[in-house]
Design brief:
globular, alpha/beta, 10 helices, 34% helix, 4-stranded antiparallel beta sheet
Length: 262
């Protein structure tokens, strides 16, 4: 059975909810400049799809277009498990970073209350409200940060808090635009482990823009090499060993060494 007809994941598992995102003949233009051209992708539920490419390849533009923030040509359709088209799904989004005033008294709890609750941020929060936020943070191993001031968070801690916020409510598609830029190796590993666990737990379709090749190779189900158009697509092994990958990342020397057995 193929993905088009039955929307089955690579592991053979039947999809649930909004199982597939189909991007067809997709393009974005800014003035006379083509940012993206002839993009055709089929993204599956329960899978982590990594978007890689050089700077200026249009990776973040693709994410913004999926969010409806950038005009585009072509179509984006969302398919349910029965392979019928559906209305747009709920999307969660984690940006590259969030500019914060380190002197601000705003806490992680305040951020959640302001974003998701009608309860006034400046009032003392009931214990039940605090517990609800803590449980949402626990999904990303950040429950202990509930009372921490935002300006006191490390880069990795802040990104896990933003990830928890993107999961409230649980989305059909989770978009991550270079969410761990500048984070140390331990924070990087923890973030990817957390995202991988969430993918399995909630059967999420995850689209991740990243330059972390080692992490992508380890955790991604499929990789899309983008440079204004799709140059290669497949498993991490297939894409990382493709001609296009070596050409884009100027690794012809490494390819020669591999052929020579050095």
């Amino acid at each position: 059975m193929n993905h088009e007809a039955h929307c089955i994941t690579e592991s053979g598992r039947a999809c649930s909810g909004y199982c597939c995102t189909k991007i067809e003949n997709f393009g974005v233009e800014l003035g006379n400049l083509k940012i993206l051209d002839n993009i055709n992708l089929h993204l599956h539920c329960g899978e982590l799809t990594a978007i890689i490419g050089p700077n200026g390849a249009g990776k973040s533009t693709l994410v913004k277009a999926l969010l409806g923030q950038v005009p585009h040509t072509g179509t984006i359709s969302f398919m349910q498990a029965n392979a019928t088209a559906s209305k747009a799904p709920v999307m969660g989004y984690v940006p590259q970073n969030l500019n914060l005033d380190p002197t601000s008294p705003t806490s992680v709890l305040d951020l959640f209350v302001a974003a998701r609750s009608s309860y006034p941020v400046w009032l003392l929060k009931p214990r039940k409200e605090v517990q609800k936020v803590r449980e949402k943070l626990d999904r990303v191993k950040a429950g202990h940060l509930v009372h921490r001031k935002l300006g006191a968070l490390s880069g990795g801690e802040l990104q896990r808090v933003l990830l928890a916020l993107a999961l409230d409510p649980i989305p059909d598609i989770l978009l991550l635009d270079e969410p761990v830029s500048g984070i140390d190796q331990n924070g990087l590993e923890l973030f990817y482990e957390t995202v991988s666990a969430l993918r399995k737990a909630f059967d999420l379709s995850i689209i991740l823009v990243s330059h972390d090749m080692d992490m992508i190779y380890k955790y991604a189900d499929r990789v899309v090499l983008l440079n204004r158009t799709v140059l290669a697509m497949g498993t991490p092994e297939e894409v990382f060993n493709s001609e296009s990958f070596f050409e884009v990342f100027s690794m012809n020397w490494q390819k020669r060494r591999m052929k020579d057995g050095n």
